[in-house]
Amino acid sequence: MIYEIKFEAKHFTEFDFNNTWIIAQDMEHIDHLHKKTNELIKLNEINFNKDLQINKLYNYINYTAIRKIFYFFKIKINGYRKIIHDYEILQTEKFLFFEINLISKYSFDDESKKTCIHDIFCIKIPIFFYPFKKILELAVRKHIKSQFLEDEFYRKRLKELNDRGIKKKYIFLTKLNG
Questions:
Q1: Which residue, of 53, 65, 110, 136, has the fewest CB within 10 Å?
Q2: What sign for the dihedral angle of Cα 148, 153, 158, 163?
Q3: What is the pLDDT of residues 32-63, one digit of tens each?
Q4: Could you state, in order of their start, the residue ranges of all structural domains in the chain?
Q5: Domain 2-175 grouped into CATH 1.10.3720.10
Q6: 3-state SS string for the chain
Q7: Can you give the pTM of this predicted structure?
């Protein structure tokens, strides 16, 4: 029997909406920037976006990652990431008998005049893990908050480079493309 934990998290950034969206798609910074919560990410398959009129780097990616839970407990996950709509990413990660589904939506919030990153989680766990559901939710929230704060530094650096006319090259897109 499977139990589902559902929750949402919103973060707001003052940085540019388009740069925030590009960073959301960037898989290569995970290995370098998010060392506290990730040890390794290996891209297994990339389906490239060939329509340059659409604002996305790829259609989907299959990957394997080593995640760190509470900074020390390591788990190997198999993941899948798909851009399902404009400014919306579906990400599924599976390990053992757990499955995490995340929909990340990116929008500009007119009220706050900031870019909003809205994450919607659905975590499927075996019913015997039900007593630990709050601990699991806390671990995921802590992971997401940590990555958001680290991404703020990345957004700042990307803005500084863009202001100087320097555009980031996405090397991870060429690794599997040859």
A1: 53
A2: positive
A3: 778 777 888 899 999 988 887 778 889 999 99
A4: 2-175
A5: no
A6: CEEEEEEEEEEEECCCHHHHHHHHHCCCHHHHHCCCCEEEEEEEEEEECCCCCCCCCEEEEEEEEEEEECCCEEEEEEEEEEEEECCEEEEEEEECCEEEEEEEEEEEECCCCEEEEEEEEEEEEEHHHHHHHHHHHHHHHHHHHHHHHHHHHHHHHHHHHHHCCCCCCCCHHHHCCC
A7: 0.85
